[in-house]
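Reopening: structure tokens for the flavin-adenine dinucleotide complex, inputs below.
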Amino acid sequence: MSDFDLIVLGGGSGGLAGAFRAASHGARVALLEPHLLGGTCVNVGCVPKKAMWLAAELAGKLAMAPQLGFATQPGALDWPAFIAHRTRYIENIHASYRRRLDAAGIATLPVHGRFLDARTIACSDGVRLRAPHVLVATGGRPQRPDIPGAEFGGVSDDFFRMCAAPARVAIVGAGYIAVELAGLLQALGSQVELFVRGSRLLKDFDAELCDVLAEDYRQSGVHVHFGYQHGGLERDGKRLVLRNAVGDAAVPFDAVLFATGRRPNTDAIGLEEAGIDTDERGHIDVDAWQATNVEGVYAVGDVTGRLPLTPVAIAAARRLMDRLFGGHADAKLDYEGVATVVFSHPPLATVGLTEAQARARHGADVHVVRTQFRPMLYALADVPQRSLFKLVCVGAERRVAGIHLLGEGADEMLQGFAVALKRGITLDDLHDTVAIHPTSAEEVVLMR
Ligand SMILES: Cc1cc2nc3c(=O)[nH]c(=O)nc-3n(C[C@H](O)[C@H](O)[C@H](O)COP(=O)(O)OP(=O)(O)OC[C@H]3O[C@@H](n4cnc5c(N)ncnc54)[C@H](O)[C@@H]3O)c2cc1C
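Re-run output (same inputs, fresh job):
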């Protein structure tokens, strides 16, 4: 006997999308979410991060305004006031999810789920549920590094609990979360130091743009330390002392934030009982159809370790449900050519192959065009920051295989060009497109 057609573990980006799509096809769905609806993205990820980034962007523009003839010099951001706006925005999302879940007839249970076997889930309130299909969308959580005193530092979840900008803050890491937190805290008034183990930021992004971004950060006052080997973290009264591997200490910080990776939420969900395979880091192994090695059990989103982004989790879940309940036997997500943005200052938007990846795959058959320019507002205000745009083309026909945009407005510019890249456009197609003037986006079709 089955209680439902589908049980979903996790009410984050992937779980909600899967539950809604399955219900729209007529499936009887139970969704288990012990914490806040919306998961990481809505509560401690994309949404509150973007809110803080928007505040930081505004701070940058306000600082520029007097140079353009505006009379007033703005004060610092009133964090509690801004956080009240952020909280209201997020609460509206929760309310909208609750309404939509009720309207879709999805049984939403505020509990943890754990496999007893591949068809049976034990809820943390003692109830047992059975279904022929189970979707695991339990996401992940931040991970501190394995160094003495790491517990004194915070992680990205702790950043979203802050009610004021710390005067001096150390951020440890080089991925997009580290880069985003560093940029926005510096723009909101903190003195930021970024500690990076390797020799560059954002290892999966185009190296040339990342080097320029590191220089932009330095220009804006962030101290970027490459090749930093961590020794440990100590308390010194209210402040924190970060030591390197040979014991040297930096000037004490008011806050230290670790952005040193995330681990999947798979350690307490009974995967062994159901016989579900994971990789060595605990991510659930899935095939191209989001199926695990156990029939009827699927996984999407961060718990699979594949492109941990909200729209990817959503797209994978929707296609899976279209396949299981909607009669679309071939529906599956193409993980190639997914566009993404780092909300740095300025933002970095990217889709497709980096120059290094293109050269590794296509050898000498790679043609790169780039342009560097000052966006009009910065030129007017005589601010030195420049944008760097780059196209990576391959083959004799110069098919556009990568688009990399660093600069003001890049975050809003890339989506349309990502469609074009997916459709296989060439450099000639871009040149054949009449520009929109005067914009930064026109540089993409004018680059030679
Ligand atoms: C600081 C930060 C910024 C980010 N910014 C962006 C961005 O700008 N753009 C972007 O695309 N992505 C961003 N991401 C990534 C994005 O948030 C994730 O890729 C996305 O949330 C993954 O969705 P998910 O459904 O896999 O997992 P989650 O959203 O993490 O949801 C998992 C849910 O499962 C629940 N759960 C856990 N265990 C159980 C259980 N046993 N039973 C039932 N429920 C359970 C959890 O409570 C959680 O709500 C960011 C992430 C972080 C941390």
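The chain is about 35% helix and 20% strand. The CA atoms of residues 339 and 415 lie 7 Å apart. Marking as resolved unless the reporter disagrees.
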